[in-house]
Amino acid sequence: MEEDTDFRIRFSSLCFITDHVGFHGTIKSSPSDFVVIEIDEQGQLVNQITEEPIDKISKVLPEPNNFAKKTKLDLQNLSFEEGSNQEVNTLVGFSNDDPNHQTVSEKEDIIDDGISKCEEEKVDVLGSLLDKKTNELLSRFACDIKEKWDSKTELIGPSPEFLLGTFLDKNQRAILHSAVRQKFPFLITIGKNSEIVVKPNLEYKELCHLVSEEEAFNFFKYLDAKKENSKFTFKPDTNKDHRKAVHHFVNKKFGNLVETKSFPETYCNAGNPSIVITVRFREKAHKHRKRSLLECQERKVIYTAFTLRKENLEMFEAVGFLAIKLGVIPSDFSYAGLKDKKAITYQAMVVRKVTPERLKNIEKEIEKKRMNMFNIRSVDDSLRLGQLKGNHFDIVIRNLKNQVNDSAKLRERILEAIENVKNKGFVNYYGPQRFGMGRKVHTDQIGLALLKSEMVKAVKLFLTPEDMDDPVNRAKKYFLQTEDAKGTLSLMPEFKVRERALLESLHRFGMTEEGCVQAWFSFPHSMRIFYVHAYSSKIWNEAASYRLTTYGPRVVEGDLVCLDEGGDDEHVPGSKVHLVTEEEELANTYEIHQVVLPVLGYNIQYPKNKVGRWYQETLSRDGLQTCRFKVPTLKLNVPGCYRKILKQPRNVSHQLIEEHDIDVKAEGSHINEAISSLLISFDLDASCYATVCLREIMKHDF
After folding, report:
1. Number of helical H runs and strand E runs in the chain
2. What value does the CA radius of gyration of the chain take, rounded to a whole number of Å?
3. Which residue in the list 33, 340, 444, 685 is annotated as catalytic?
4. Closest CA to 488 of 468, 474, 498
5. Distance between CA atoms of residues 347 and 360, nearest Å
6. pTM to 2 decimals?
7. How many Å apart are CA 44 and CA 465, to the nearest integer?
8. How far is CA 384 from CA 41, 314, 338, 340, in A?
9. Is 98 an active-site residue?
10. With a cut of 50, which residues of the chain have pLDDT below it?
11. Residue 281 to residue 286: CA distance in whole angstroms
12. What phi and psi values does residue 513 have, to the nearest 5 degrees?
């Protein structure tokens, strides 16, 4: 694979909007030199202490069970300092010595009592409610599906379906739904008005990749029976990785209905412990879904908000560590935006199913990971991405010096640069951290492969090594040479959890297109969509440079402009976008700061000028001329939006730090002016990058 250009070279090809000379300097010499503080929707800095008591309502609400769904922690790139060898399970408060636990032999009695005695009745129901021909056609449909699966033949096109008929009586429909699923657990039934449609149960097929067909058959019969206080137990299993996969599948697909737990099972003829996975219905999950308003209020999910301060820590690692300590999964955390790693950052977060008191109890533990929490309080809902006004930055730039061959006074260059960007703004590029810091592969390349449904290629790109001799890159190199997922797992360090999750899936499903699709599902949706967004961001950066190079700062016919003057949205919605006419160009109706460019997606329009043609040519170059920006196999939909070409920093202030005891004159620098550092502070709208703003100020790529 050919080596890609370094990200610095990529960014040096992007243009500037201002014309000052700039200066050189070093940012992020230490995390304390780069402080990021989120600004909430009310315009308040989130690091400000609120007056609200910490345990405002935690004494009223019961503490929920928080030791569920640990499996998904594997999706974060974090080091498991604690608990890395624990069996992954999700049964709340169900210990190995639970007197209600049944053994494998007892499981047979449970299944028999809950299902088998009723089976003949269910079959008779089908015979009494369906005519003979419909019954035969249903059986033939079921056999056809089963034969295709048994022969490993893929179902081409839309999922096949069979119309059972129209049944006006609601109770009759309910009986038929249950009867069909009991007789054919590998089928599902769907109600459409008064009709019942039968389709293949793809979750059944997926489970058959993990367990025997007999187990899958009985498991789905157990699920449909919904017998109160009943349990289902899979066959004994000594493979920990395989048990983790079964736990993950059951909880991912049916976690709102059932919970799982692993128990040791000792056989008298062996004495070696084996492990069985037991499934049971969650409390009240078997009951009717409709609840009274009072019941809904009683079961209301707990949301606790807090401000997180972290230092030199990747956000996903921070969330993963918090999830472990609280016994929840990373997706139980919500936040308004991602934050830098090499920095001190403050951001608002909300965690589900955790009371303020519980959160308060882990404050001391998380300090070891350079994290702190405050402003802990109960709220009504989670956060969503983009739910912020922007970010405030306090940045120290060190090792200041003039540009090469610039003989002007350094102080004047600095003041000129700050004032210029303060008034004119900067090109609103996506920052280099959007694309990763790898030299060979960037996240946008993976996103392009996913958009083209090249799943195997995307996996290989993700596992492409850098030119470094360390355990991670040696493992990646071994995989590209051999495609041996199991062998690569033995080489991949434990802390590379995302890579290991992908490899475990490849080991189970194989290095085929379908296997790689399953492997990508080992990542959460937010991570899968991140790669596609990275590609869209790269194209937007290139489009912005082309637009400014082609037309400069004037607004021309065919440009897209934002009509909402007061808006500072992260992305501009289509309803606020207007196509510039020839008359408006001649009348200079609009200014450059109103111009927007589309971020790729299926619901955007392109400029009607050279820039629009550039978009089409670029998509054709990348093989996306017919792309609908949807990847159904990965459940990815990208509607697209619009982003302003220029942005301006707000509330800009600065201070020059002078070191009078410095007497060493650096080449090309007026160090005798005694200026050693620049402290600069400013606010940016959401989705704007401080490094991009600094690039415009300094005329220097980092």
Report:
1. 23, 23
2. 30
3. 340
4. 474
5. 17
6. 0.64
7. 43
8. 12, 19, 11, 18
9. no
10. 1-9, 53-123, 266-271, 285-298, 661-672
11. 7
12. -55, -45
